[in-house]
């Protein structure tokens, strides 16, 4: 490593002992070299992990003992070295140093490695061909089946939907977009001062990194939609004997159809209309409705952290009753409970589409198509029979 630290390879070499000094340098041209053989290296790495310095744009070169190829040092097992990190761990094999990039998908998953290159004293550094052809985003695109592509709506749909809804606001308000990356929606982060905060989008407003505003609603489109298709009805000029009775029967069925449609529309409008009995949280608390919450980290924090008496009572009496199982359920369980006619659920956009069984609907459509074909055949046979009887 002394060859790498020569002035021809590094413009400036500084020895630091405090992780706060890292943020003083330009992270674009800085690489942090840490020797795990030093007695204070474990504390230094833990402080850097608490300050989220393993993420982009910081680059690390962690020197451990002469481990075997692709081994992960034990000091890094509990570190949050995620997919946006660039941490190189060298392993010596003979006179060759194998440089490997290490990262993990989440805080609890196993480490994964990528071949960064090899280094020898005679030839220097040779990067891997895979690194020169593809970027880190492309190489780490498929994370054990967890695709991070924006087109996959079932993965982190809350963040994607919110991001797409907020993007037009920048143009309307002529604002500049600044992105702040967080680990999750609601994980608790403990600082060295033992004060806790929540690493969420709300923290950006608390630290004055962002401001919250409520824009005025835009006016609705005043013009009505113009019909794009016209439907015409044609009547046959040939009137058979007894057509009057058929016309009366047809009109009666048509009137009953309109009455049934109007009645069904009124029932649907009544069911979809908002109830006047529940307007406040107090009304919801005093109602006989049972409540359930989707089991997510944000909801696990939001409801227990409520301090208002009404919100706290709703959580204690309807969500987490004493002596009963808490009503935190997964999205699959919520969709399964929709089989109960008196149950309703709200989930992420398109997240429950592949969980709904459309087999009964398709079965009824098949029955209807079969019945229509059968009636058509019967009509044709009756028409031919009547024609033969008239000729006879």
UniProtKB/TrEMBL annotation:
The chain crosses the membrane at residues 247-271, 361-383. Pfam families: IR75A_N. Keywords: Membrane, Receptor, Transmembrane, Transmembrane helix. InterPro entries: IR75A_N. Residues 20-151 form the Ionotropic receptor 75a N-terminal domain. It comes from the Eukaryota. This is Putative chemosensory ionotropic receptor IR75q.1. It comes from Operophtera brumata (Winter moth). The lineage of its organism: Eukaryota, Metazoa, Ecdysozoa, Arthropoda, Hexapoda.
């Amino acid at each position: 490593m002394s060859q790498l630290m020569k002035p021809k390879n590094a413009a400036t070499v500084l020895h630091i002992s405090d992780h706060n000094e890292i943020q003083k340098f330009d992270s674009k041209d800085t690489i942090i070299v840490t020797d795990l053989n030093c007695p204070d290296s474990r504390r230094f790495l833990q402080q850097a992990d608490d300050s989220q310095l393993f993420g982009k744009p910081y680059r690390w070169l962690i020197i451990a003992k002469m481990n075997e190829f692709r081994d992960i040092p034990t000091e890094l097992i509990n570190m949050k070295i995620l997919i946006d990190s660039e941490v190189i761990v060298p392993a010596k094999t003979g006179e060759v140093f194998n440089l490997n990039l290490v990262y993990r998908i989440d805080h609890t998953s196993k480490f994964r490695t990528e071949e960064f290159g090899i280094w020898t004293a005679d030839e220097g550094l040779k990067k891997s061909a895979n690194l020169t052809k593809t970027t880190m985003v492309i190489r780490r695109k498929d994370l054990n089946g967890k695709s991070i592509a924006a087109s996959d709506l079932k993965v982190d749909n809350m963040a994607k939907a919110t991001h797409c809804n907020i993007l037009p606001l920048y143009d309307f308000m002529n604002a500049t977009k600044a992105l702040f990356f967080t680990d999750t929606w609601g994980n608790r982060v403990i600082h060295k001062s033992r004060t806790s905060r929540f690493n969420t989008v709300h923290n950006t407003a608390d630290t004055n990194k962002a401001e919250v505003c409520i824009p005025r609603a835009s006016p609705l489109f005043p013009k009505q939609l113009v019909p794009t298709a016209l439907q015409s009805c044609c009547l046959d000029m040939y009137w058979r004997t007894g057509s009057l009775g058929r016309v009366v029967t047809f009109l009666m069925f048509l009137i009953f159809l309109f009455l049934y449609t109007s009645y069904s529309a009124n029932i649907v409008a009544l069911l979809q209309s908002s109830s006047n009995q529940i307007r406040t949280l107090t009304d919801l608390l005093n109602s006989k409705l049972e409540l359930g919450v989707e089991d997510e980290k944000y909801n696990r924090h939001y409801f227990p952290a409520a301090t208002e008496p009404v919100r706290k009572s709703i959580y204690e009496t309807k969500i987490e009753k004493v002596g009963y199982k808490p009503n935190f359920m997964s999205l699959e369980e919520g969709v399964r409970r929709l089989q109960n006619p008196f149950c309703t659920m709200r989930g992420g956009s398109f997240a429950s589409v592949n969980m709904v069984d459309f087999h009964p609907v398709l079965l009824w459509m098949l029955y209807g198509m079969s019945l229509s074909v059968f009636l058509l055949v019967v009509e044709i046979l009756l028409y031919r029979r009547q024609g033969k009887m008239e000729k006879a």
